[in-house]
RNA sequence: GGCGGC
DNA sequence: GCCGCCAACATA
């Protein structure tokens, strides 16, 4: 395809069947539809591929480390500058470089496509990597360029009419945390929901009858889906054609060497927030469900937690990415009344055991909502359990009040809890409080989320909170994605969003404020077990 | 917290 | 009083 002096490619170029080189790259974005047909030396061939690999791997690992948008940009800019500079159309002096840079981008993509088409595993890695890169570039392109690209590719989706928009206004506003007002101004596309699984997964899109309603702001996802689809197909095709290419003994060794690069690969650190440090836990409190936040607050207040509290909270923390090492530090510091060796004697073993480092070595999963609600009802002095299930009504109200839940929502949640729909109450709590964190203060009421049956939709899905860690992850990712979209984070700000090294929360911010409330929590009356 | 060992 | 060992299970 693109070896050196190859009669065929010369011919093609001559015939003009390939893309014209001079103005072949109007934008930095590229769907890589046609392979480049040109001459290139083996050395260049390999160098191009390796350079692109650098960019792809930096991006993927940077993403996995959950850096702040700023940190991510910084590391990416470094890598891009070094390995694959791509100047924009605005830098007019360098119009010559445009074509060179974009050509390199084009070629290197195709080399890797070849190198990574051999096995399913390689293909899916490459697909992920390229999608990430495409998205990264697209997001950072000015909108005029984005549009130019979309138009040039003849991409278009069905727009939602104003009438339909009015009809769906409340659903749309609920799913996107936007006011109905904003919904009217926004352009929406109606597409098959398979096309935007990303958005669906993040629950940021309204679904109905197999269709997803995607706001203009999330158009990237549509473009990306197109990109992904095409590339996936292309990879399959190349993969099938590859065996017949073995004759080209010049290339195969090089290609195989290239995809070896990827061996520094997949490590399954499932932790959403990355490696969390003991001192970072406080700043992550904003993403925790009420049960865990309560445990945390009480632990800070009493410098202690009883057995089931440690169990419930400790496993939860492990689930959000606190390593064993950090956990030991965390608990040691939390129980500040104890000397280090008192601590080691009484608690260290159990911490290690929970992390699968003692005895049978089981790496225990954090407790699910069902487990917390059904087992180990808290007794006097206990701080664990599910607030919606185990706390007295006044204490429940205090929690809601401490989070600025308004009267309407408070009553709603209270009645759900009293109706024994604990997880639904929690889901509603999630929605209301997250909306507030995003700065949405109105219009998430009545019909929008709360339908007639007393059933609650979890932002565009009909699911509910099933697991404390799900609550956390969902909230964490939601804030992360909103933040990187450059949207302002609302009034309850002051917590710095997810970052590699979160700063401690401003002291007192979320401790139960308004004198009197505190007393309620430290009292031992917060367990009215209903059978 | 439970079980178990000295 | 000293110590070991156990439990859990969402999810895309
Ligand atoms: S429903 Fe689950 S997550 Fe929410 S408070 Fe109860 S236990 Fe915690």
Automatic annotation (TrEMBL):
Residues 482-509 are annotated as: Disordered. Residues 286-472 form the DNA primase large subunit C-terminal domain. Binds 1 [4Fe-4S] cluster. [4Fe-4S] cluster binds at residues 291, 369, 386, 426. Its cofactor is [4Fe-4S] cluster. Residues 482-506 have a biased composition (Polar residues). Pfam families: DNA_primase_lrg, DNA_primase_lrg_N. GO terms for molecular function: 4 iron, 4 sulfur cluster binding; DNA binding; metal ion binding. GO terms for cellular component: alpha DNA polymerase:primase complex. Keywords: 4Fe-4S, DNA replication, DNA-binding, Iron, Iron-sulfur, Metal-binding, Primosome. One of its GO terms (biological process) is DNA replication, synthesis of primer. DNA primase is the polymerase that synthesizes small RNA primers for the Okazaki fragments made during discontinuous DNA replication. Belongs to the eukaryotic-type primase large subunit family. This is DNA primase large subunit. The lineage of its organism: Eukaryota, Fungi, Fungi incertae sedis, Mucoromycota, Mortierellomycotina.
């Amino acid at each position: 395809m693109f070896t050196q002096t190859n009669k065929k490619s010369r011919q093609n170029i001559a015939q003009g069947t390939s893309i014209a080189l001079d103005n072949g790259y109007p934008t930095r974005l590229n769907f890589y539809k046609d392979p480049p047909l040109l001459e290139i030396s083996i050395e260049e061939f390999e160098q191009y591929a390796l350079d692109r690999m650098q960019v792809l791997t930096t991006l993927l690992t940077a993403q996995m480390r959950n850096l702040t948008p700023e940190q991510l940009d910084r590391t990416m800019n470094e890598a891009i500058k070094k390995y694959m500079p791509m100047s924009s159309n605005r830098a007019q002096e360098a119009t010559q470089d445009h074509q060179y840079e974009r050509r390199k981008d084009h070629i290197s993509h195709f080399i890797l496509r070849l190198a990574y088409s051999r096995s399913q595993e390689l293909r899916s890695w490459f697909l992920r990597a390229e999608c990430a890169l495409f998205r990264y570039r697209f997001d950072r392109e000015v909108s005029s360029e984005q549009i130019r690209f979309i138009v040039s590719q003849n991409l278009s989706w069905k727009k939602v009419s104003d009438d339909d928009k009015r009809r769906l206004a409340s659903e749309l506003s609920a799913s996107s945390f936007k006011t109905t007002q904003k919904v009217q101004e926004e352009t929406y596309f109606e597409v098959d929901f398979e096309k935007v699984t990303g958005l669906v997964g993040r629950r940021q899109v309204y679904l109905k009858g197999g269709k997803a309603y995607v706001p203009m702001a999330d158009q990237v996802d549509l473009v990306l889906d197109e990109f992904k689809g095409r590339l996936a197909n292309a990879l399959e095709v190349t993969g099938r054609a590859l065996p017949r290419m073995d004759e080209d003994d010049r290339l195969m060794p090089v290609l195989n060497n290239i995809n070896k690069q990827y061996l520094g690969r997949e490590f399954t650190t499932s932790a959403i927030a990355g490696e969390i440090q003991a001192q970072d836990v406080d700043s992550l409190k904003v993403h925790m469900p009420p049960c865990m936040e309560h445990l945390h607050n009480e632990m800070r207040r009493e410098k202690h937690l009883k057995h089931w509290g440690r169990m419930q909270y400790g496993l939860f923390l492990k689930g959000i990415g606190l390593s064993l090492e950090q956990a030991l530090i965390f608990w040691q510091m939390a129980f500040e009344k104890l000397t280090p060796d008192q601590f080691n004697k009484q608690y260290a073993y159990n911490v290690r055991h929970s992390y699968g480092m003692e005895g049978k070595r089981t790496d225990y999963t954090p407790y699910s909502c069902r487990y917390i609600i059904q087992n180990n009802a808290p007794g006097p002095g206990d701080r664990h359990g599910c607030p919606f299930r185990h706390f007295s009504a006044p204490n429940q109200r205090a929690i809601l009040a401490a989070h600025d839940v308004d009267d309407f929502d408070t009553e709603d949640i209270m009645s759900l809890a009293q109706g024994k729909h604990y997880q639904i109450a929690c889901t509603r709590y999630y929605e209301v409080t997250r909306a507030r964190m995003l700065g949405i203060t109105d219009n998430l009421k009545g019909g929008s989320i709360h339908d007639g049956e007393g059933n609650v939709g979890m932002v565009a899905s009909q699911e509910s909170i099933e697991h404390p860690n799900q609550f956390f992850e969902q909230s964490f990712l939601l804030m992360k994605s909103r933040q990187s979209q450059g949207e302002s984070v609302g009034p309850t700000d002051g917590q710095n969003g997810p970052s590699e090294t979160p700063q401690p929360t401003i002291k007192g911010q979320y401790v139960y404020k308004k004198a009197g409330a505190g007393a309620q929590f430290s009292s031992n009356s917060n367990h009215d077990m209903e059978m």
